[in-house]
Amino acid sequence: MNSRKIVLSIVGVLLIIGSIFGAKYIINSKYTPKPRPQKVVKTVIVETVKNGNVPIVVPANGNLVAKRRVELYAEVQGVFKPGNKLFKPGQEYRAGEILIQIDAAEYYANVQSSKSNLYNLITSIMPDLRLDYPEVFNKWQTYLANFDINKSVPILPEMSTEKEKYFISGRGILTNYYSTKNLEQRLAKYTIAAPFNGVLTEALVTEGTLVRSGQKLGEFINTSDYELEVAISKTYSDLLKVGEVVELKSIDKSKTYKGKVARINGRVDLTSQTITAFIEVKDPDLREGMYLEANLTAREEVDAIEVNRSLLLENDQIFVVRDSILDLIPVNPVYFSNSKVVLKDVPDGLTILSKPVMGAYSGMLVKVFKDQETNNQD
């Protein structure tokens, strides 16, 4: 029994020792070759250089403002009378229509009283004119005949002699006449009429409000003509021209409008070193305050190309493709926009990258995109 256990123990030890040596042999005999790195050739998109005239387009933006606007102020005091239309924002008026009517009953009575005094004063001198100045009597008689107290006071007859002037002035007629005309002018200020076709954009009073002299009543604008005020670099101050057509786009790029440069400010802003240009635009869809973007064509650069700014390296170089190998050439950038750059001194016929390549370097092996290569050959 004991000898059997001894034999089994020896066999077990031998099996363990054999499995250890067998495992070592298998491990030592297993050879895994190192993988060879694959040579990756990147595919690039290219274009062939063709120099030409590149328009320098200056982007600008701003908010529309009505070209014709009137701020309504009261020059007299009184109660705002109701009119044919409600004095509310958005209300349209035709030229000549009454915007605001202030109660002038009391002041109107004063004007009529002054007219009556003038009429009576002229009437009182008529007997003296008949006797002392018969040669001028008829024209003053005609003046009285045409005098209507319910209408504006007519202009006084022209006085031809010094004696007539002294006589008329000495009786206080001239003073009374100009005083009455002054009252009439002030009476006209109780009514404010629309100076042009437009819409009320702001109303600060309502019917029945007591209006005071100097109080702002609202704003009235013409809705057919608008202006866009934009600030551009002073570099292009001598390149922009009045009357130049400008393309305008809405903020969501959904609509395009045509405008033209109406005015250019002659002064440069000291802080921003920009000049202000005013672009006139007409369209029934436009509203005051709309945000628009403008593209101003400042000039054309001759013998130049326009590429994406990401293709230009910091040291003013770009990549070209020569026999499937990338190379660098120096260029002369002359204008930068938000996404583009205008380059000069790039020879015609060169193949340049049209899209940037990650990790690109001079001497890098590349492959031109097949479909593009076929299109270029066509």
TrEMBL record:
Protein name in the entry? Efflux RND transporter periplasmic adaptor subunit
UniProt xrefs under Pfam families:
BSH_RND
The root-end lineage is: Bacteria, Pseudomonadati, Bacteroidota, Flavobacteriia, Flavobacteriales
Q: Which Gene3D superfamilies match?
A: 2.40.30.170, 2.40.50.100, Helix hairpin bin
Tell me where in this chain the Multidrug resistance protein MdtA-like barrel-sandwich hybrid domain is found. Answer: 69-217
